[in-house]
Amino acid sequence: MADAERDDADRADGRSASRAGDGRVASWRRPKRMKLADMVAEGVYVASAATRLALKNRILVETLAAGEDFDVERFVPVARATLLDLAVEAEQDAQRIESERRRASRRYSDSYGTHDYRSRDVRNLRKRQKQSAQVAHELRERAESPEELRTLVEGAREAAWAEVERNIDSTLRIEAARPDLEPDYAKLRESRMQSLRLVDLPRLAAHRRRNAQGAAGALGQKIVDDAPAVASGIDLSELE
User: Fold this and answer.
1) What angle do CA 146, 147, 152 make, to 5 degrees?
2) How far apart are alpha carbons 141 and 127 in whole angstroms?
3) pLDDT tens for residues 213-240?
4) What is the pLDDT of residues 132-160, one digit of tens each?
């Protein structure tokens, strides 16, 4: 279903009515169209988030893995290059949508799929084209703003530190766990000991018997079946 067809479905839903839980009939209102400015702002936000993610990974690699000092100015060129790459992608998207819009304007039959646009999709395609073009413009402006670039780098640094902090906290919680700090330790300990008695030790006994038989077969010795296997002073035969 193309965009225009989805709009037609939305209009149909807007004219429909449903019965509320108390028996009253409540009519559906047609959902409001998203304004172009809001669409552009959302696109810029997503691009900024992608830039911060790329910067965060770069900071983690260079300052933690490589052991180098953090310097905001060092990562400003990386932020600028990332924004410009995203701007180029948005411009290419705008060009692609423009080509689709021109083809769609000469087609008047029914659509056969989501991206099979027709003349009634021209309006939405034009709006999407403007969105991509304006997003590219906004990203290029931010790429030339030292303040915006430093803000992105600082945000990426905070995200990197937050990730390191979570990893350290998780490691400390695991390594520093103590029985007196775990409310279910006694209950879980009983379960673990039962698993040891019923599963682990019998498995160990069977493993030792297989090893003994294999060694005896290789040396031509007779297996003494009545000799109990002992591990850490425990007669394993009593557990079977």
Assistant:
1) 95
2) 21
3) 765 554 444 444 444 555 445 554 544 4
4) 999 999 999 999 999 999 999 999 999 99
